[in-house]
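Recap slide: Methylamine utilisation protein MauE domain-containing protein, sequence and predicted structure.
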Amino acid sequence: MTSDNLQAPRRVVAGSIVRIFLGVLLVVAAFAKGLSPAGSAEAMFDGWPFAARLLAVQAEMAFGVVLLLGLWRSHVHNAAIVIFTGFALIALRSVLVGEQSCGCFGAIAVDPRLTLLIDFAAVVALLWTRATGCKEPFFVAGRRVVVGAVALVAIGVPLGVAMAFSSPVRDVAIASTVKFVLLEPETWVGRRLPLLGVLEGASGLASGEWTVLMHHHGCPDCERVRPDYENRIVQGEQVLLVETPPYSEPDAELDSGHARLPSDREWFVHTPVEIVVADGVVVSVNRELLSGEEARL
C-alpha cells in the first residue's frame, strides 16, 4: 500500500473533524448573536433591518447544521472555504481599525486578532482537507436532511423569537426604559435632539449652539480626536463630550463640558461622532473627524 493510500483515510477523518468543529463554531456564534443581538448590532448589523439580521443569524446556524450533518460535503466544503475567507477579511478589518471586538459572538467580546487567527486556521484546514469532500449528489434525500430540517425548525424558531424580544429599539424610543437602544445620529438632522432630557450633566444643551462629541473610552479613534474637543472646552467654546457606558471612571464627578448616557440600559452607536445642535435641533452630523495635528497636514 502506497503512502498516498495510507494518507487518504486520515484526510477523510481529518476533514470530518474540521467540518464538525467549524459547524459547532458557527452554531455557537449564531446562538450568541441571536441571544444578544444588541451586542452585535453596532459592530456587525449597524443599520440592518430586523429581517436582515434574523436572516443572517438563521443562515449562519443553517450552514453550521449542514456542516455538522455532513450533507453535500464537496459543495459545502468549498462553500466553507469562501465563507471563512470572508470572515477572516472582516476580522482583519477589525484588527486594522483597532476595534475591541468584531461582534461575531454577540455580547461576548473576542479580540479580533484571535478571531482572525481562528478564521485563518479554518481556511488552511479546509484547504488541506479539501479532497476529502465526497462527490455526493446535491439534491440528496435521506434521513440526514430530515434531521437537519427538524433541528433548524426546533432551534431556529425559538432563536428568532428571542431575537425579536431582545432586539435593540431605534432612537425614537430612547426616552423609554427599554434595555437596548441603537442610536442613529444621521437620522436626527433637522429634528430635535432625542438625547435632550436623557443625558446626565447636560444642562443648557437645549439653548444656543453646541458641538457634541459622542465617545467611548475604549475607542482608539475617540482617544485620537478627544483632546482637541477638550481644548475647545478650555477655550470657552460650547462643546459637550458625551461618554457612552461603560464609563472610564464610573465614580468620577462630571466636569463642565462633560455628560453621560445613563447606564441603566445598553446604548449602541458608532463613535466618535460629532453632532452640531442649535437651540436643541440637530444641524449636522459628522463622522469624518480629524485631530488638530491631522487637520494641519
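The helical segments are 3-35, 37-41, 50-69, 73-97, 112-128, 143-166, 220-234, 292-296.
Residues 84 and 121 are 9 Å apart (CA to CA).
(End of recap.)
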